[in-house]
Predict the structure.
Amino acid sequence: MDALDRLEPVARELVHRADEYLAQQGAPADHPVWTLLRRVGAVPSDAVCFVAGQRPDRLRHLGDAIREHTAGYHAASIPTALDWAGSAGTAYAAQAAALAAHQGGDGPDSLAGRLVETAGYLDAVADWQQGTRDQLARALADILTSAQAVVVRLGSDGARPVGPSEGSAGASGRAVALAAADIGARILEVAARALEVGADIGPAWADRLTELSYVEPIEAGPARAGQTIDVRP
Amino acid sequence: MNGTLADAAATLRRSGGQFRWTAGELARAAGDPGSRNAGQPDGRGASESAERGHDEPARLALGTGGAEGFGTGGAEAFGAEAFGADGPGRLGELGSELHRRWQDAIAARAREARAQADRLSEAADAVDRAGRAYAEIDRPPRPTGNR
């Protein structure tokens, strides 16, 4: 359980209430919440619900399972030193060495390396999800202790109560609408930042996730019938 | 057949089986339900895969059911949700994009493993042929029967 797991249930009603004010009373035309709403394409309460539902550990668990398969790749034996003379034996030795390097070599340009990179991609997505959760938790903590929260909870700036279904006419109504917009903007800032950071993950990993081609050793082809076999005494 | 070569061919087939089994596991993780029996080494039965002692936690995590249980929708359904593809607005679009990249990557890993299994099988065949050729040469000449 992280900070967001603890804070989201506490903030849920307030965020929904802010959403209602925002939908029904709007916000000043120059308020940043409008730009953020367009950029994220979701209302604050939906964004909170979505991020709160993300479980980075599931991706990490999947990454660990992928990574475990590398042990099988390293353990899969390819005999290289065979009592097999002649051109076919030489070709086999070269092929065996190339196959062994292809499956278990160090770095991303081997099959085992590609598995590690694929698991790394899952870790990167999980890190991004966790980072977003942490930032949203901080935003909700700020919101819960803000003056805007008091205004939205009261439905008033203290002068006159205004329900969500009422108009925004009057100073008190405008204050509530502004407070709701501030709350929404604080949440959507986190979502917008998450979109920016998340959009970089795929391109950053693209080259390390592509399919790896096997490169035949230069003089080795498959041993074919008709190739000479030298019998050793 | 030359004993050393026969042993080598058997080793290559076992290694090929390892890759074929892994290919099936990875293909399932990519959401390919038809890959359920794809990982049986060299045409041997599904029970053999289980007998080979591969660890259960890895299999569960890759979506073959059980405790982690990716649900009746299989690994693909689990994957989409885990990446946030079900999210609202642009968040959902980004989640779908991240999930697609994962699916492409894991499908590539499955193809790589399958191709390596094929190459190892071919190598085993070549070694088998060489072993038989040696055995043929080593065999003492058969009496002709003409007295």
Notes: Chain B touches chain A through 61 residues (CB under 8 Å). The mean pLDDT of chain B is 71.
